[in-house]
């Protein structure tokens, strides 16, 4: 037991112990995060959450690079190399209930979910803090590219990572303040190139392995999401229907709304002679509506399941990211009728506001909060339809 002041990447903190749990997926990022903390002299304990059982590497579709069996092995090899303890905890049932089943349900309802935000919010962080408490650790560290900043009173708030191309603060928008106070992001000030180079220099296991490109529980390749939902869905819930053009004419049919997402252009199964995009999905009727690209433009969004940082209140102005790779659009956010609901009006139209995705609110680098997109709002000039079903 160590009592006193310890430093996490330059930040002085008063703690009862310097023991820190490091979430280790077996990838490069978490390995370097653990190595940095170990080098600083902290008592590191590596923790891997076993979330999913994967097909054999050679099986059709394979899997994404995240927590696969060989990655769990690499996490343990890293711990052995650096000389700290490592444990794996089975959380497959929780992951199935919290992430996988809602993912399937959302696609069957004509929505496009954000499973990585659900995983961080409902599985990873909560379980890591429970394990930290069991093991007597004061802090939890992850390999996310995000930062924890503090105001003059020492209150923590979530901020974007310095590497804009890798920033992962979007996925952490709902992290409660009591967790932020104990979270450490050793990579927050680094670029991916710097982290990769450090892994090679340290000769960490898997230092040159590829990046994770797909969801960890969905196979790679064309049509993987559709195949995954098709295999796991209650067949009675699959909703086939008509493909309808911008004039309301039926131009084809399809085998299920889970095969489409708002903004999609390829793989529509019809050819209209001009570029066409999915503008709306009606899971009740099964109709998938197509139209020109300008029909995707929306003037705002209705949000539910809203989570705001502790000192943030509505109304406010923010930069709103309506999906992970979206650079964001400025807008006004006001309270809406109902609990934990808000309405966002964009300064300029945004493309493909998609039901089920997460809108995250920013003030500069600071994360103010976010919520699930319940529906898009038509532009004020009335020139476009609402791009997602109510």
Keywords, please?
390 residues, alpha/beta, Rossmann fold, SH3 type barrels, Elongation Factor Tu (Ef-tu), domain 3, 3 domains, six-stranded antiparallel beta barrel, 7 helices, disordered N terminus, disordered C terminus
Description:
The chain is α/β, with parallel strands linked by helices. It folds into 3 domains: 4-201, HUPs (Rossmann fold); 239-291, SH3 type barrels, CATH 2.30.30; 295-377, Beta Barrel (Elongation Factor Tu (Ef-tu), domain 3), CATH 2.40.30. It has helices spanning 28-39, 69-82, 92-108, 115-134, 177-180, 192-201, 224-232; strands at residues 4-8, 11-15, 19-23, 43-50, 85-90, 139-141, 146-150, 156-160, 183-184, 241-244, 250-254, 277-281, 288-291, 297-308, 316-321, 329-335, 342-351, 358-363, 366-377. The strands form 5 sheets. It has a 6-stranded antiparallel barrel with strand order 14-17-16-15-18-19. The longest helix has 20 residues, at 115-134. It is globular, with a radius of gyration of 22 Å.
